[in-house]
Structures are given as C-alpha cells and as structure tokens.
Amino acid sequence: MKHAVLSSLAHNFVDSYGNGNGFLIGYFQMDVYGEAARSSEGFIEVDFLTGKFSGAAISDDLVRATELYREELPGFCEKHGASLTDFKTFIAKFWNEYNGKHCKVSVQDSSGKLSEAEYIGDPPTRIKATDDLGRIRTKPNRVYRP
Q1: 38-47 long-range CB contacts below 8 Å, 24 or more apart?
Q2: Long-range pairs for 5-8 at CB < 8 Å and ≥24 separation?
Q3: Is 8 exposed, middle or buried (0-12, 13-18, 19+ CB in 10 A)?
Q4: 107 FRET partner, CA 20 to 30 A, in 2, 52, 117, 136?
Q5: Global pTM?
Q6: pLDDT for 68-119, tens place per residue?
Q7: For 37-59, how does the pLDDT look when each residue is reduced to its tens digit (9 = 90+)?
C-alpha cells in the first residue's frame, strides 16, 4: 500500500473522529477538541492502533467512542483497499489555538516510512504557509524514511 494512500485514509478517519458526531460508528456525540481545551495539558493524543491516550484526562464517553472507532478501523481500511497491517503507527493529536481547531496525524507504514501532517479547522484542511518566494502554499508533510 502506498504511503500517501494510508495518510489520506488516516486523515479521513481522524476527520470523522474529530467532527463530534461519530457518524462512522453510528451517531455518537463526543468533543475531543472541547475536552482538550478544558484540560491543563491542552491536548489529547490518540493512538488508534492501541487505543491509548496521552495528554488530557478524557471522559468515559470519549473512551467508549474511541473503542468503537478502533473496532471500525479494520473495516474502514478494507473498504478503502488497505489493511490494518499496513499501519505500524497511527496517532492523532488534537488541540485548540487562537485560530481554531488543530490536529496532527502521524502515520508510519509497515515499511517504516513515517509522515506527519498538520490540519486546521472544521473540517480539517492542511495548514498554509508562505514559501521562500512569498507565495502561499500548503505546508508540506514531514516525511521520515527508514
């Protein structure tokens, strides 16, 4: 599986998780950004492969929603032509800043290639940055090769 396809799949999965309605698992109200904002840590990081959290303490509802999302992930991958074994790591970090909701999606594929992409807004879109010539461009992903 191409790394770019895995990254795109991960973005779509995280978008569904972060939008607050949980449509991928039926209808399940949750607010990962709100819980992150109300915490002293200011962020919630979710490992979708293990179901572990770091950062802020989370509500029982968000724990349950995450369990349901983890159960749905293999089917979501299969539907998009991938397999859960194509992922070595799949982590999303959620936080708020003065300019809106932010998330960073980190994906490592089975061959060891790792990429991180940052998104802003609702729905999450790639962050824009100014290049050396003063043009506004999409901020590039950080890619680490094994």
Answers
A1: 42/95, 42/96, 43/93, 43/94, 43/95, 44/93, 44/94, 44/95, 45/91, 45/92, 45/93, 45/94, 46/17, 46/91, 46/92, 46/93, 46/94, 47/89, 47/90, 47/91
A2: 5/80, 5/81, 5/82, 6/82, 6/86, 6/87, 6/107, 6/109, 7/105, 7/107, 7/115, 7/117, 7/141
A3: middle
A4: 136
A5: 0.89
A6: 999 999 999 999 999 999 999 999 999 999 888 999 999 999 999 999 999 9
A7: 999 999 999 999 999 999 999 99
Q: What span, in angstroms and rounded, lies between the C-alpha atoms of 122 and 101? A: 7
